[in-house]
From TrEMBL:
<dbReference type="InterPro" id="IPR029017">
    <property type="entry name" value="Enolase-like_N"/>
</dbReference>
<keyword id="KW-0479">Metal-binding</keyword>
<dbReference type="GO" id="GO:0016052">
    <property type="term" value="P:carbohydrate catabolic process"/>
</dbReference>
<dbReference type="InterPro" id="IPR029065">
    <property type="entry name" value="Enolase_C-like"/>
</dbReference>
<dbReference type="Pfam" id="PF02746">
    <property type="entry name" value="MR_MLE_N"/>
</dbReference>
<dbReference type="InterPro" id="IPR036849">
    <property type="entry name" value="Enolase-like_C_sf"/>
</dbReference>
<protein>
    <submittedName>
        <fullName>Mandelate racemase/muconate lactonizing enzyme family protein</fullName>
    </submittedName>
</protein>
<dbReference type="InterPro" id="IPR013342">
    <property type="entry name" value="Mandelate_racemase_C"/>
</dbReference>
<feature type="domain" description="Mandelate racemase/muconate lactonizing enzyme C-terminal">
    <location>
        <begin position="148"/>
        <end position="244"/>
    </location>
</feature>
<dbReference type="InterPro" id="IPR046945">
    <property type="entry name" value="RHMD-like"/>
</dbReference>
<keyword id="KW-0460">Magnesium</keyword>
<dbReference type="GO" id="GO:0016836">
    <property type="term" value="F:hydro-lyase activity"/>
</dbReference>
<dbReference type="GO" id="GO:0000287">
    <property type="term" value="F:magnesium ion binding"/>
</dbReference>
<dbReference type="Pfam" id="PF13378">
    <property type="entry name" value="MR_MLE_C"/>
</dbReference>
<dbReference type="InterPro" id="IPR013341">
    <property type="entry name" value="Mandelate_racemase_N_dom"/>
</dbReference>
């Protein structure tokens, strides 16, 4: 056992590799807090979180001014206790994105440290359900992409062995969305999964209309059809739709998933390890879903989620969106359309510290040392 004696925090700002648009926003930047913790035996762990354009400085401030000072001197293996204590420390700002992202930055770092000390990869330490998981691609399905390019990308992913492609919907008319989906379905045939994502853009009445249309093309799931805080509307839609309803990337606590699952308001959950507050609550969400016989297909963060989807038995697919290529030397191990979990101890992410230092945002870093209170 060892106590935390040092924390090194910084933030890098990463531009997306491709233009990313959906029905409500453009993904313009990836503000990425990165934290390294050192214990009094010299072991280290590194973790991270992210935003899609704003809020990164607020996450850094919460970590630097409030959370990390309270982490100094804590026993690194007491991850559950640390998570709960830090959540209570921020009770005036929880539940919410900034607090959850800050907690995730610490929690993923502690899990990396735990796994490195144990000499185990995260996927085994957290459960070890399987060593690989099928992939589906989102990167070629953004809302601005012309139909012929959607088709070309889906065919390329199918040829590479991927299980499916996700296509953004939310065009001004139902007919426009239908035409795009019809073209892709005709090209890929019946055995390739087509998933759609509306990014919370519809009211219930329009979501019902679109769900009826989606059923024509055997769509695998209808993701974020409406604002995530409207559980009642999702419950009504889930009861009426023959297309499975997927939600979760815009939820920030385990309790929110409990509400959806207990009310039958979704068929698939998509907990994001950064947005729910880290690996500790993500695993709880996954096992909660398992108790309801519901799958978890996490949002984004493939470099970290590959280990988590392999840790649990009810995670059938992983979303392929490269995120960390500019600041890592490791790459997702993809073979015949499946992502294989890293075998190295820890999260399995090899950081390029020179590239990180070159991209670090001025004024958004801190080093803390000491044994705490």
């Amino acid at each position: 056992m060892a106590r935390i004696v040092k924390a090194e925090l910084l933030m890098v700002d990463l531009a997306p590799q491709v233009v990313r648009t959906d029905a409500i926003q453009s993904f313009v930047s990836q503000e990425t807090p990165i934290l390294t913790l050192t214990d009094d035996e010299g072991a280290t762990g590194t973790g991270y979180a992210y935003t899609i354009g704003t809020g990164g400085p607020a996450v850094i401030s919460l970590l630097r001014e409030t959370l990390l000072p309270r982490l100094m001197g804590r026993e690194a293996e007491e991850i559950e206790g640390i998570w709960r204590d830090l959540l209570f420390t921020t009770h005036a700002t929880a539940v919410g994105a900034i607090t959850s992202l800050a907690l995730a930055t610490i929690d993923t770092t502690l899990w990396d440290l735990r796994c490195r000390r144990a000499g185990l990869p995260l996927w085994r330490m957290a459960g070890g359900a399987k060593s690989s998981v099928p992939l589906y691609s989102t990167e070629g399905g953004w809302l601005h992409i012309p139909t012929d390019e959607l088709v070309a990308d889906a065919l390329a992913m199918q040829a590479a062995g991927f299980s499916g492609s996700k296509i953004k919907i939310g065009k001004p008319s139902l007919a426009q969305d239908r035409a795009r989906l019809a073209a892709v379905r005709e090209a890929v045939g019946d055995d390739y999964a087509i998933l759609v994502d509306a990014n919370q853009s519809f009211a219930l009445s329009e979501a019902i209309r679109r769900a009826d249309m989606l059923a024509e093309f055997d769509i695998g799931w209808f993701e974020e059809p409406m604002p995530a805080d409207d559980v009642g509307a999702h419950r009504e839609l889930a009861a009426r739709s023959s297309v499975p309803i997927a939600v979760g990337e815009s939820m920030y606590s385990l309790s929110q998933f409990k509400d959806y699952l207990s009310l039958g308001a979704c068929h698939i959950i998509q907990a994001d390890v950064a947005r729910i507050g880290g690996i500790t609550p993500w695993l709880k969400a996954a096992h909660l879903a398992e108790a309801f016989n519901v799958s978890i297909c996490p949002h984004f963060l493939m470099e970290l989620h590959v280990s988590l989807t392999c840790a649990v038995p009810n995670a059938p697919m992983l979303e392929y969106i490269p995120q960390l290529d500019d600041i890592t030397t490791s790459r997702l191990d993809v073979r015949e359309g499946r992502a294989h979990a890293p075998q190295a101890p820890g999260l399995g992410i090899d950081w390029d510290w020179d590239a990180i230092a070159a991209r670090a945002v001025d004024g958004l870093s801190a080093t803390l040392e000491g044994k705490g209170d």
